[in-house]
Structures are given as structure tokens and as C-alpha cells.
Design goal:
heterodimer; A: 369 residues; alpha+beta; Gyrase A, domain 2; Elongation Factor Tu (Ef-tu), domain 3; six-stranded mixed beta sheet; 19 strands; globular; B: 125 residues; OB fold (Dihydrolipoamide Acetyltransferase, E2P); six-stranded antiparallel beta sheet; 9 strands
């Protein structure tokens, strides 16, 4: 039996199909199905239990400086209650994980991937020894529940449960001590779907109550509980990378197209030297690209990519039929010289080379953004 | 949905009808989720029992299809090319996948009946 979030029993009661995800028993979908859940988030709203995500608190006078040393993005420039997305690298520039950094009144909060939590916590403690005094690290994953309400109607729905004016919370900003359905929450306008929405952090024992109340509040909009299947298809269309697919220890954030989140000029951070070197030498030799499959066939993680001559040039990191676009699309690594949109390639589907074309990413961007 | 009594079943969740048609079970389509793609074999191909003859894909997964018995493919369900969701909607009816001819009767007799198939599912889950 895997680990369970505080909301596990609700998933079972709602008919969620439970699967193993990084050691956690999580719903991959509910009876409505991945396509309906995906569409609910694009058109209305969806609710995700993301309590399996890890949370690490940094406290002390050098907490923010330590965060800045750990990750590639610039934490020192964060305003109070601001959030940033960032890779965290090994000294060789490979990716340990990608995470969110919250600058809060009395602490810095790191939100890390569930499957990486143990590895990350060990890594953070190890780096702390290098960094020196002035920071305390605490893994608060087990005592934290996290719920994401996502979609164009998410704000309207969540607003019914709180007196806090949610309009005041800007994109990638947070508010602390918000009363949500009578429980104290940290609320941020963040998410992993490509839609507007919020992530709500509560004490583990409050998670079921808040989950139920959001579902109830959103019933008239047709909110659906959504599983990991829709979470993956939504993030994939928006080209938000997933660790273990687009990101891993063997790829740098520069290769993954995350240069915007790598501030090479900031003071010392883990992985800086090799990343600076790559950039000075003209950029990475391989790059993450998006492609669309031009004939019948569905791209999947691990499917090889070929050039027009049939030579293997790379591999697919994520692929599936896009519910929103109605097309088979993929993400994968190819040599930099073949990364231009319009380049013809092929994806090998069960031994058959199916023509494909590099396209601009993200595949999906919500309107008005 | 109850398991139709007139079909024979495999542990891999395929069914065989007396007319040679083959599909996947209610349980299988439910486990797959929304079917979005079906790769069909060519008519005329000869299959051995247990041989992979095609693929069904959902948003998240890829699954091989295995022939419940030996035989020759007489027909494939072309409707599934544009409407793979028929497998979800009516797995024992319009969601059929291929039809075999020259079915090996001894192999067919060795497949599970509805009761045994249901027992198999309960045992496995």
C-alpha cells in the first residue's frame, strides 16, 4: 500500500481510480473520465488534490539567501508574498527538481514534486551544510494539505468561501491566513494547468473539509474533481515541464527551454559554472521542442525521434492526443539545429516512422494572456 | 453492466462471439478510460491464439490487443478509426474490433465462460 493524502477516502467515495504515483495512492481519474475532467478545467473549473506534493520551510535570517543559493531563479528579488517558479540544479547543471518558492512573512516555503520529496529534502539538508548557519530547514509535507482549484471559474467559486478579495491576489502571488470555508489557508494564484486558478494550502486535518466545500461551492458551475490523468494532459498542452519527463538529472534547465528561470548573473548558486559555460559557448547542443504528428499515430514518452533521413536524433519526453487541440502532439529533445518550428521530423511509433513537424510551444495558451 | 452469457472470454479481457467477432470487455474499456485511438490489423492476416493484432490507446495508456483464438481476420471495424469512443460506449456491440473466420473450435471451447471470467476479475481485484 502506498502513501495516502488526507483526502484519500474522498477519492475512493467519489469513484476515483486509484493508482500508484511516486509511492502515493492517487486518483488517475474519476468516473467522468480524463477528457471530461480536462474540458471542465479549460471551460469551467476542476479540483485537484495535490497534497502529495512536498513542502519545505526555510526559516532564519538567511532563509531567502539560502533559497537563492539552492535554485537558479532570482529569489532575492521576490517581494513579500510573491511566488516564483524555478529549477534546482546539481553542481553539474542537471536538474534535481523544479519547484515553487514562496517568500512569506516569517519563512520561505518551497513546494516540491511528490516523487522527489525524499531526495530533495536530503539534498537541501546537504546543501545547507555547505551554505553555513543562519537557516533552519523543516520538511512540513506530512502536516500540509494542498488543493488546487483551476479554470476560468475558479476565482468565482473560491470567492464564495472566503471574505478575502481574491482579485487582490495577483498571478504568482499569495496571501497568508486567509479564511477558506472557516479554515486557515495560504492561497496563491498559481497552478499546473495553463488556466487561471489557485492553490490552497491548509493543515492536513482541514483538507477534507476544504475539498468538500469547494466541490459544493462549484456545483452550479459544473466543477469536477480531477485526477492525475487530467493534471498531466493539462500541463502537457500548456508545456509545463514534468520531472521525470522533460526534466531530470541528465538534462539542464537551459536544454529544457527554461532559460528565463535561470538567472546566470546572480551571485553564487548550485550549478552556476557549467550553465554559464554552456551559455557562453553558444547555448545547449540539444533542446526541448514541441511537435505535432502529421499522420495517424500517438506519440508517447520514450518514442524515438528521427530526422527526414531516418536517423535517430532524439526522444519523446511526453506525448498524447491533445484533448483541446484534437491532435497528437509531443515534447522531446532534438539537436539544436533541428529545433526550428517547421522542421520536418518523424516519430517512431511501434517501429513505424510517422511524419511530424516541429511547432512553436506552448501548444495551448489561454486567451487574454 | 453484466457480462454477456453468450460470449467467451480471455484473462486479457478480450471476448469472442460465436460469429467470430472479437472485442474487449466492459471491464477493460473501463480500466482504459476514454479510448482515443485504435490501430487495426489488415484483413486477411492469420492470427495465432494470443497473438497481438492491434492497439488501443487512451489519453494516458497504450494497450495491445490479443487474439483470443487462432483464425484469419475476415473483417475489421472501420468505424473505430473515426469513432474509437464506440469501444467505451458499447464494448460488446458496435465497439467490436475484428471478426475472425476459420476459428479453432477447440481453442474457443477452452476460453472462459461469463461466470468464470467474472470470477477471474474478482480474484484479481
Amino acid at each position: 500500500m502506498g502513501k495516502r493524502t488526507p483526502i484519500y477516502e474522498e477519492h475512493v467515495a467519489l469513484g476515483g481510480r486509484m493508482v500508484d504515483f511516486g509511492g502515493w495512492d492517487m486518483p488517475v481519474q474519476y468516473p467522468a473520465g480524463i477528457l471530461a475532467e480536462h474540458e471542465a478545467v479549460r471551460q469551467r473549473a476542476g479540483l485537484f488534490d495535490v497534497s502529495h506534493m512536498g513542502e519545505v520551510e526555510l526559516r532564519g535570517e538567511r532563509a531567502l539567501a539560502f533559497a537563492d543559493y539552492l535554485v537558479t531563479n532570482d529569489c532575492q528579488r521576490l517581494a513579500m508574498d510573491q511566488v516564483l517558479y524555478t529549477p534546482m540544479c546539481y553542481p553539474d547543471g542537471g536538474v534535481v527538481d523544479d519547484l515553487l518558492v514562496y517568500r512569506l512573512q516569517d519563512r520561505v516555503l518551497l513546494v516540491i514534486n511528490a516523487a522527489n520529496t525524499d531526495k530533495d529534502v536530503a539534498w537541501i539538508f546537504e546543501r545547507k551544510e555547505h551554505f553555513g548557519p543562519g537557516v533552519e530547514v523543516r520538511d512540513v509535507s506530512a502536516e500540509t494539505g494542498q488543493i488546487a482549484v483551476q479554470g476560468p471559474r475558479a476565482q468565482e467559486i473560491l470567492q464564495r468561501l472566503t471574505s478575502k478579495d481574491l482579485q487582490e491576489i495577483a498571478f504568482f502571488h499569495a496571501a497568508e491566513d486567509v479564511d477558506v470555508a472557516g479554515r486557515k489557508a495560504l492561497v496563491s494564484r498559481t497552478g499546473y494547468t495553463g488556466e487561471d486558478g489557485f492553490e490552497v494550502y491548509v493543515r492536513a486535518e482541514d483538507a477534507v473539509h476544504v475539498w468538500r466545500e469547494i466541490l459544493r461551492a462549484g456545483a452550479q458551475e459544473g466543477i469536477l474533481p480531477c485526477g492525475l490523468g487530467a493534471r498531466d494532459s493539462l500541463r502537457f498542452e500548456a508545456c509545463l515541464p514534468l520531472y521525470g519527463h522533460e526534466l531530470d538529472a541528465d538534462h539542464s534547465p537551459l536544454e529544457a527551454g527554461l532559460k528565463f528561470f535561470v538567472k546566470l548573473q546572480k551571485p553564487d548558486f548550485v550549478g552556476q559554472a557549467p550553465l554559464v559555460k554552456v551559455q557562453e559557448e553558444g547555448g545547449p547542443a540539444r533542446r526541448l521542442v514541441g511537435y505535432r504528428v502529421l499522420e495517424r499515430g500517438i506519440a508517447r514518452q520514450g518514442y524515438p525521434l528521427q530526422d527526414e533521413a531516418g536517423k535517430t536524433i532524439g526522444v519523446t519526453t511526453s506525448g498524447m492526443p491533445s484533448p483541446t487541440l484534437g491532435q497528437s502532439i509531443g515534447l522531446g529533445y532534438v539537436p539544436a539545429e533541428l529545433a526550428q518550428p517547421g522542421t520536418r521530423i518523424a516519430v517512431e511509433v511501434r517501429g513505424r516512422a510517422v511524419p511530424a513537424e516541429i511547432v512553436k510551444i506552448p501548444f495551448y495558451r489561454r486567451s487574454g494572456k | 453492466m453484466s457480462t454477456p452469457q453468450d460470449l467467451r472470454y480471455t484473462k486479457d479481457h478480450e471476448w469472442l462471439r460465436a460469429d467470430g467477432s472479437v472485442g474487449i470487455t466492459q471491464f477493460a474499456q473501463d480500466q482504459l478510460g476514454d479510448v482515443v485511438f485504435v490501430e487495426l490489423p489488415e484483413v486477411g492476416r492469420t492470427l495465432k491464439q494470443g497473438e497481438a493484432f492491434g492497439v488501443v490507446e487512451s489519453v494516458k495508456s497504450v494497450s495491445d490487443l490479443y487474439s483470443p483464438v487462432s483464425g484469419k481476420i475476415a473483417k475489421v471495424n472501420q468505424e473505430l478509426v473515426d469513432h474509437p469512443e464506440l469501444i467505451n460506449q458499447d464494448p460488446y456491440g458496435v465497439g467490436w474490433i475484428i471478426a475472425l473466420e476459420g476459428v479453432d473450435d477447440a481453442e474457443a471451447a477452452g476460453l472462459l465462460d461469463a461466470t468464470a471470467y467474472e470470477a477471474e476479475q474478482e480474484g484479481g481485484h
